[in-house]
Amino acid sequence: MATRETETIERAAARAGQYRWVVVGLLFAATVINYIDRQMIGVLKPVLSADLGWSETDFANVIFWFQAAYAIGYLGFGRIVDVIGARAGYAVAFVIWQLAHIAHGGAMSVTQFALARFGLGIGESGNFPAGIKAVTEWFPARERALAIGIFNAGANVGAIVTPLLVPWLVLAYGWRMAFVVTGVAAFVWLIAWWGLYRRPREHPKLSAGELAWIEQDPVDPVVQLPWKRLIRVRETWAYAVGKFCIDPIWWFFLFWLPGYLGDRYGLDLLSFGPPLVAVYLLSDVGSVAGGWMSSRLMKAGRSVNYARKAAMLVSAVAVLPVFFAQSIDNLWLAVLVIGIAAAAHQAFSANLYTLPSDVFPRAAVGSVIGIGGTAGAIGGMLMAKYAGFVLDHLGTYTPLFAVAGSAYFIALIAVHLLSPRLEPVAVAR
């Protein structure tokens, strides 16, 4: 019976059009740009530290203010995209973060870098609330985890492109022009987004079959929901606590991994590119695989609760070997262990990101994503301060990898305790 139903669903999907995947392509491209802009400071850490005389604590403070802005902006953009929609909300966020990114090229001190990073954090915080809002508008529940996994993989592609592109730009034009060139070039995406994105019912290129496929789920009443109601719901905190636990680990990989490879294995701006590429190629696979895993379980008849949590449990187990990363003397074995952990993070994250759309009405999704993103950024702020303290005073990454290895089990336990069944919630006004 389940097999016959699955075959019917797959035939219906085949008859539907494919424009929704163009939307995913736009979200993927924006996330690539987002992570190029975000990771450049990590790749340039050795250059900036030497040129501007930064300590580990100085670098941590610059990261801290980026994440403080991200915490503020994520909460705000969650509400903004619920009110003005994904199209306009994404465009506003993109303009803010590109202008702030370009401003890095003129920064002369830690304070000026922190101000530029603060602006970048405000703008970049709109990427995922707007992207997930767009996925919620364009995809039925059964495809959302896969769609989110694909566009979330843009983070890994951005992290792959950065260590390949940025050293070349720095050698050719200097680190200041590297910020300017990448920022100006990115505005091509904004033109494509504004020209190609509409809500499904407003889009002239969408077929009737694809619209029916997108709208197969029960329709939620479109009612704006205040935060005072959302914060009383356990499922809001299930998502927020999960983000608080796991987001700092991704920030750690993103901002401190180039420095770790330089300190531990003697790599520099030109030589740490291939190891970073390997790590983020693995994490790219994890992002798509995590969404595929839970979507496949749901197609096989498993509940949303079982599918999401099973995928997250597998991911948490896969992170465990990172506990021992600091003690591995072979560079490429360490890269494999860290790469698997990064892949598992993305698999876990792809499923965690779907929880708001699984259990909340559409009108609340952006706001819940914003609350969770703020919680994750606060966790990242704490991780930045902790990393700066540990590296300046202890000179070892071991405590940081220990935090990374345990965070995902804590996140999954919190999600399960706060939302044992992942059932849809009714949030009254």
UniProtKB/TrEMBL annotation:
Subcellular localization(s) per the UniProt record: Membrane
Sorted UniProt keywords: Membrane, Transmembrane, Transmembrane helix
Gene3D superfamilies assigned: MFS general substrate transporter like domains (1.20.1250.20)
Main localization of the protein described in the UniProt heading: membrane
Positions of transmembrane segments: 19-36, 146-171, 177-197, 237-257, 277-294, 306-325, 331-353, 365-388, 400-419
CC terms in the record's Gene Ontology section: membrane
Protein name, UniProt field: ACS family hexuronate transporter-like MFS transporter
Organism: Sphingopyxis panaciterrulae
